[in-house]
Write a structure and sequence with these properties.
alpha/beta, 28% helix
Length: 289
């Protein structure tokens, strides 16, 4: 029985997902031709395709009306984000692996609001300043925001984008070492998942967070060495709907004390506990320095 091989053009036309991560030969011209052939494409991963330019990606997006998710390696200018969503109205999820230092947004007033964008992930981006942060105002319906390893996020900047993105449900600020959230004085009622792993937050910051984000369902505090039982108490008392808390490697949290407090909270279904013996872990940690 002879097999029937579909023509390449038909295969490309039916393609829904494409992963080109690490394919360094992909340039703007090749991407344009690929998107012209893949009329039903919904997801494109262009990570580590360093020959691509933001302008080239923007042009290619004009050819792909069905794309929902886009991942690319470098954001050369934060003004390109609203350009991408304008060129591809179906785009609801953007992930950027790196960013450059961009100090202003010259043509901000000319951009159109993009209500379709629901998820934005910025990893290793350093362009977040008081000027560029206003780009978030163009995405009022964001429900997920990942700002992983974005080293310039201060408490003031955090307050700004939380006010702009009032529909956020998932916020990831892991590895943001300069983070200071003690200035939040307003409520973020819809936030359900907050990842603060590997940050320098302390009990005071947790108190503020627990009062401003009292609807939290999940809180990740992995490797937060400045958190103690006092901070855990604030969370338990104020976040009455909390279902998951991760205290992995929180060396200053006494496992026995925190367990008693956490077990008294009926809503919790998953507790990732800190080290069982705080003093021994402290000694181990100090001896490794």
């Amino acid at each position: 029985m002879s097999s029937i091989v579909e023509p390449l053009s038909l295969v490309l036309f039916k393609l829904r997902k494409v992963n080109l991560s690490g394919h360094n030969y992909i340039n703007d011209n090749l991407l344009l031709h690929l998107f012209k052939d893949c009329k039903l494409l919904e997801e494109a991963n262009l990570s580590h395709c360093y020959k691509l330019t933001n302008a080239g990606i923007a042009s290619a997006l004009l050819e792909i009306p069905t794309l929902k998710s886009l991942t690319f390696p470098i954001l050369q200018n934060c003004e390109m984000l609203p350009t991408f969503t304008r060129n591809c109205p179906s785009l609801s999820e953007i992930t950027v692996r790196h960013g450059w230092y961009v100090n202003n947004v010259e043509n901000f007033n000319s951009f159109v609001v993009s209500p379709q964008l629901k998820s934005l992930s910025l990893v290793w981006n350093c362009w977040l300043t008081k000027e560029t942060i206003k780009v978030f105002a163009l995405f009022p319906n964001l429900m997920r925001l990942d700002l992983i390893r974005c080293g310039r996020i201060s408490g003031k900047l955090m307050c700004q984008f939380l006010r702009m993105c009032c529909k956020l449900k998932h916020l990831n600020l892991s590895y943001c070492q300069e983070l200071n959230v003690s200035k939040i004085n307003f409520e973020v009622p819809k936030l359900e998942v907050l990842n603060l792993a590997n940050t320098s937050i302390d009990d005071k910051a947790l108190h503020v967070i627990s009062k401003s984000c009292c609807g939290l369902l999940q809180l990740i505090l992995e490797n937060c060495y400045n958190v103690t039982e006092k901070g855990v108490k604030h969370v338990v008392e104020n976040c009455t709907q909390l279902r998951v808390i991760n205290l992995t490697n929180c060396l200053n949290v006494d496992a026995d004390v925190s367990a008693l407090r956490l077990l008294s909270t009926r809503s919790l279904i998953n507790i990732v506990a800190p080290p069982c013996n705080r003093s021994s872990n402290k000694r181990r940690r100090n001896s490794s320095w």
